[in-house]
Amino acid sequence: MTLELFPATDEPFRAPEPLGPGACVLRGFALPFASELLAALPRIEGVSPFRHLVTPGGYTMSVAMTNCGPLGWVSDRSGYRYDAIDPLSQKPWPAMPAAFARLAREAAETAGFAGFRPDACLVNRYEPGTRLSLHQDRDERDHGAPIVSVSLGMPAVFQFGGLARGDAVERVPLAHGDVVVWGGPDRLRFHGVLPLKDKPHPLLGSVRINLTFRKAG
Ligand code: MD3
Ligand code: FE
Questions:
Q1: What is the topology classification, in CATH, of domain 3-214?
Q2: How many DSSP H helices and E strands does the chain contain?
Q3: Looking at the CA of 208, which ligand is closest?
Q4: In which band, very low, low, confident or very high, does the pLDDT at 109 lie, cut at 50, 70 and 90?
Q5: Which residue has the least CA distance to atom 23 on ligand 1?
Q6: Distance between CA 78 and CA 211 in Å, rounded?
Q7: Does residue 210 have its Cβ closer than 6 Å to ligand 1?
Q8: Cβ atoms of 93 and 105 closer than 8 Å
Q9: Strand blocks (E) in 21-104
Q10: Residues 176-189 pLDDT 10s
């Protein structure tokens, strides 16, 4: 048997980069799935178009959002919630493509969270200048499950803070194909995305798509 210490492959295995005790970046993990993920977007948008949600405070978000899977995250003047019905189409959200669910499960397992079965996938669309201010994801019922985030298209700088809003923030650059997994003690850390610079991506142009997989119900 030959031990391949340096296998001649296009996609060398890269060890998870820890961001905290329960959080890590899997660089390039989604690259083998990227064309399948992108091919599924027109059908999702066809059923539930991207829209700019309004926060309970009355601000319109610069990120455009839609969802797929049994539950979708929505915001309006009355608050944040997960809902089985898209308030725009007044129909169920589009089904979660099998490749989405498989990527989320494999990434979670690689990060040490075996058995992740997401029931919600929030799809965020960024254009140059779009930002996501510092927040916590706490509308999910089960904070024991991790969140898996998949970055596609233009690069972004992710802000990763602590458990209190005022805690120091670390900046993590995220590129096309990068996957981040958060759970356990890092699940409720504040996070956000800095305003996007216009660095057009060969496949997507001046767009960044982020998929976040959650166990919401
Ligand atoms: C860290 N999205 O949709 S994903 C979001 O790039 C959201 O679109 C960002 O934050 C984006 O809520 C960042 C990363 C993310 C998601 C959940 C987290 C980071 C997290 C939960 C806890 C800590
Ligand atoms: Fe978030």
A1: Jelly Rolls (2.60.120)
A2: 2, 13
A3: 1
A4: very high
A5: 189
A6: 25
A7: yes
A8: no
A9: 23-26, 64-68, 72-76, 79-83
A10: 999 999 999 999 99
